[in-house]
Structures are given as C-alpha cells and as structure tokens.
Amino acid sequence: MKYKRILLKLSGESLMGPKSFGIEPEMLSLYARQIKGIHDAGVEVAVVIGGGNIFRGINAVQGGFDRVQGDYMGMLATVMNGMALQSALENLQVHTRLQTAIEMKEIGEPFIRRRAVRHLEKRRVVIFGAGTGNPYFTTDTAASLRAIEIEADVILKGTRVDGIYSSDPEKDPTATKYDRISFDEVIQKGLNVMDLTAFTLCKENNLPIIVFNANQEGNLFRLVQGETLGTLVSA
C-alpha cells in the first residue's frame, strides 16, 4: 500500500444519498464497506464526517440562532454521524473508537492525541467527532488539524465528483479537471477545495490532499494502493 495512515474526510451531505435530510442506510453501508476494505489491507484509518445532513451551524444564523450556539449544534450533528458510521463498521466486525472534541463520556472518548495514535497502531478505525470543539471552525479544519496531529500521510477528501475542476462540473460542462495541482495554484485560481483555514494548515505542514469521488465503490482502495485518481494537491 502506498499510504500507511490516512485521514478520510466525508461531508455530512454525502450520507444523505437521494434524501434531502438525514442518513441513507445504503450510503452509510457503502462508506463502511470501503473503509473496511482498506483497513483489512493494513491501512490505518481515521475519519472525520461533517454534519450538514442534520444541521449546519453557519445556516443557523439565518434562522435567528446565535452563531456560536448554531456551531455547537452542528458539532453535535457530526457526533451523530460518527455514531452511525461506528455502528455500520462494527456490524462488519471492524473495531472502532469514537473520540469527541466535546466531552460526552457516555458516547465516546475525549480526543487525546496519544490515545488516538495508539488506537490506530492497534488496528482500530478512529472516528473524530465534534469538529475541533470550537465555534467558527469547519469540519474541514478539524480534518486538517487531526490529520497533522496523528501524522497521517494524506487527507483523502471524498466528494460526489472525481476531483477538482476549474469550475463546478455539475453546472459547467466545459469545466477542466486537474489531475495534480499545487497549494499555491489552488489559492491563485480561487478553487474551492477546503476553507482557507483548513487549506493553510495543510499547506504549512506539507500535508497532501486528494479529492476523489467517494461514491464510486472501489475508489478508496485504488487510491491507497497508489493508483492515480481524483486530484492531488501538494507542494
């Protein structure tokens, strides 16, 4: 395998499938099978999932919520998604640990870096919930931060499209796909890969990002084997 330890970033919306809200069991099963596949092949796997299928803190302001309160509600949504993925993985006999940035000991362990690394070394999939535990930070930033802390080899960002394009390929049929692009080019071209805080963390710590289509079964396994898929963002 090309990568020994990876952090997989999934959006909450990816769990909805064709629904407009909540969790589609088929999508949850799809991701669990793919994670099991690379785990069984010897890859150490950590996961961060967003919460947008349940609640988005940044949208809460429009509904009259305080932004900080809304962000904490969004963090709780990521924990719910983490619990769902944990259950799906354990149904496949994959040992997991859910660690949360906000303490909720009945549900998961508090995030402790050394403990997370030890779980990975012991062949457990570690799911990080509740973002960074702070308002105003996205789950992209949480994914970048946790990946750096556990010394992951790469962030694999699963999306609905097969990489980074010059514009939205779902809206613009003339959009051009990039197979490989540098951190600086992404900033210069104003491409929407991650929010700027998350992206800057990766750039400053020389942590590569691969954006790929996670809805195509087998893509995750092909990626960790070293096959060229999606778009690689690196120095």
Written account of the structure:
By secondary structure, the chain is of the alpha/beta class. The protein has one domain (5-234): Carbamate kinase. The protein is 37% helix and 20% strand. It has eight helices and eleven strands. Strands 4-3-5-2-1-6-10-11-9 form a nine-stranded mixed sheet, sandwiched between helices. The chain has a two-stranded antiparallel sheet with strand order 7-8. The longest helix is centred in the middle third of the chain and has 25 residues, at 67-91. The relative contact order is 0.16. The mean pLDDT is 95.
CATH topology type? Carbamate kinase
CATH architecture: 3-Layer(aba) Sandwich
Helix/strand class: alpha/beta
From the N-terminal CA to the C-terminal CA, the straight-line distance is: 22 Å
Provide the succession of SSEs. EHEHHEEHEHEEEEHHEHE
Radius of gyration: 17 Å
Approximate helicity band: 25-40%
Shape: globular
In CATH terms, the superfamily is Acetylglutamate kinase-like
Number of domains: 1
Biggest sheet: strands, sense, closure? 9 strands, mixed
Task: Give the overall average pLDDT.
Answer: 95
Specify the CATH class: Alpha Beta
Strand order within the widest beta sheet = 4-3-5-2-1-6-10-11-9
